[in-house]
């Protein structure tokens, strides 16, 4: 695996200066996620507001260029990094006595906000894992349902587009599903610009996020093809740098569509051949085309092809995914491990894990070590400590080799838990 596209990751999270284009009439502010402000004769149209923590920074960047009032805020979708950092804009409107802006969103965005109402704590817990390396130990809930900016213009389920004009600029908004079911994207013919929200990010699409609900690869491809028809000069992605030039815009939309069709269609083919998940997963890894591996816009830094395989399978398949009746009503993994330890001692398993490790078979070594970690008696501190140390060593190696932000966070969270456990074991002896 290619290690660390770290410049790619800093690009992804927008740690670079804001820019303008089209004679300073379009302001591209990138703070974790991207905001695009369109400066028209009659006021501003804002596509996406940033994550709450960066709202003031984005506001200041827009206000360096223009002082016109905000008339419209368009929410590409309701995720925490695109819909919550609106406070400075709204405070300014109230302070100046301006009219409140129209807020445009899809009706599924409203449903999403309702979902946040009942799952606030769960989302906080999940996001702290997914983003653990950027929100280190923060107690702040990343999404608070009580802080949503309520939409005033809501696209209904059967409504695929909505248009308005401000000054002499036309704004065409389209609904397509992909990362979420509430996605809106924007096309402005006068500015030759598409704002995609997270339908385009500077990474393989986040279609198979290990922590999140179902996403839609085939519809994603179709959205890319619809965008391509616009022949845009500029593409403002949800995360990452502004993409400029007709050829470049066309290229990123085409290759992303192609990758989404590929992962979808190849898995559908294998489902029709009567294959179970494990076989499909490993076959899909084998056939992943070089041209996708090499393309920068499909970098395995946030979304991942490895994750996308899960997404397509889950789209069409139930949770019984092995074809093995043993897995239908499984025992506890701790109990299974204990039985393995009755057949062979901890020291035998450690010895074997060590030899797998020295052969570079890291994943297999992890499975063997888990037999000790899960099955050993708490009093057996010597064996547990040895197994945990080796697992930590393997996780550190995997972290070093891993290019993907979410995978790296998952591995790192596991490593941190092991360090804690080792401390406890040390104190107990
Ligand atoms: Zn995002």
Walk me through what this model shows.
It is built from 15 helices and 13 strands. It is an alpha/beta fold. The strands form two sheets. It has a seven-stranded mixed sheet. Strands 8-9-10-11-12-13 form a six-stranded mixed sheet, with helices on one face. Helix 5 links the parallel strand 6 and strand 7. Helix 13 (362-375) runs antiparallel to helix 14 (381-401). The protein is elongated and about 80 Å long. The two termini are 40 Å apart. 42% of the residues are buried. Mean pLDDT is 94; it is low at 1-5. Zinc ion binds at residues 33, 79, 81-82, 198, 238-239.
| Topology order in helix (H) and strand (E) letters | HEEEEHEHHEHEEEEEHEEHHHHHHHHH
| Largest sheet geometry | 7 strands, mixed
Give the C-alpha Rg: 24 Å
Low-confidence stretches: 1-5
Quickly give the structural class: alpha/beta
Taken as a percent bin, the fraction of beta residues is 15-25%
Considering DSSP H and I runs of 4 or more, what fraction of the residues is helical? 40-55%
Number of helices: 15
Count all strands and give the number: 13
Q: Outline, from the CA principal axes?
A: elongated
The separation of the N and C termini measures: 40 Å
Mean pLDDT across every amino acid position = 94
- Small molecules bound in the structure, each named once: zinc ion
Produce the secondary structure layout:
Elements: H1 6-12, E1 19-21, E2 26-31, E3 33-40, E4 43-47, H2 55-63, E5 70-74, H3 80-83, H4 87-96, E6 102-106, H5 107-130, E7 153-155, E8 161-166, E9 169-175, E10 184-188, E11 193-201, H6 217-228, E12 234-239, E13 243-244, H7 246-272, H8 277-287, H9 290-294, H10 305-316, H11 333-343, H12 346-358, H13 362-375, H14 381-401, H15 405-428
Parallel strand pairs: 4-5, 5-6, 6-7, 11-12
Antiparallel strand pairs: 1-2, 2-3, 3-4, 8-9, 9-10, 10-11, 12-13
The structure holds zinc ion.
């Amino acid at each position: 695996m290619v290690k660390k596209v770290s410049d790619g990751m800093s690009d992804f999270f927008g740690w670079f200066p804001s820019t303008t284009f089209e004679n300073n009439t379009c302001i591209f502010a990138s703070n974790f996620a991207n905001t695009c402000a369109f400066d028209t004769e009659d006021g501003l149209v804002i596509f996406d507001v940033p994550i709450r923590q960066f709202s003031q920074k984005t506001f200041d960047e827009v206000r360096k260029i223009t002082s016109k009032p905000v008339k419209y805020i368009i929410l590409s979708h309701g995720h925490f990094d695109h819909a919550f950092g609106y406070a400075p804009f709204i405070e300014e409107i109230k302070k100046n006595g301006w009219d409140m802006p129209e807020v445009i969103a899809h009706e599924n965005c409203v449903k999403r906000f309702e979902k946040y109402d009942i799952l606030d704590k769960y989302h906080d817990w999940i996001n702290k894992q997914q983003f653990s390396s950027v929100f280190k130990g923060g107690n702040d809930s990343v999404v608070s349902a009580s802080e949503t900016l309520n939409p005033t213009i809501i696209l209904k389920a059967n409504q695929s587009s909505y248009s308005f004009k401000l000054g002499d600029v036309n704004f065409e908004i389209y609904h397509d599903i992909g990362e979420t079911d509430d996605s809106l994207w924007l096309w402005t013919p006068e500015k030759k610009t598409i704002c995609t929200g997270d339908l385009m990010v500077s990474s393989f699409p986040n279609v198979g996020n290990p922590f999140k609900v179902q996403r839609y690869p085939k519809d994603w491809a179709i959205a890319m093809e619809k965008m391509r028809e616009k022949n845009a000069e500029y593409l403002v992605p949800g995360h990452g740098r502004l993409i400029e030039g007709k050829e470049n815009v066309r290229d990123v939309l085409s290759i992303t569509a192609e990758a989404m069709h590929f992962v979808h269609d190849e898995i559908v083919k294998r489902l029709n051949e009567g294959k179970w998940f494990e076989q499909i997963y490993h076959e899909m890894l084998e056939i992943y085309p070089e041209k996708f591996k090499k393309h920068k816009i499909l970098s395995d830094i946030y979304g991942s092809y490895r994750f996308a395989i899960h997404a397509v399978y889950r789209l069409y398949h139930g949770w019984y995914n092995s074809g093995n009746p043993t897995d239908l009503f499984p025992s506890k993994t701790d109990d299974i491990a204990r039985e393995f330890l009755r057949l062979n001692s901890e020291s035998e398993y450690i010895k074997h894990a060590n030899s797998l490790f020295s052969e570079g078979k890291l994943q297999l070594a992890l499975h063997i070590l888990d037999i000790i970690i899960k099955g050993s008696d708490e009093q057996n501190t010597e064996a547990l400590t040895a197994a945990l140390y080796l697992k930590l060593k393997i996780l550190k190696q995997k972290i070093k080799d891993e290019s993907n932000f979410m995978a790296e966070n998952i591995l790192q969270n596991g490593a941190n838990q092991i360090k804690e456990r080792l401390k406890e074991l040390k104190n107990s002896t």
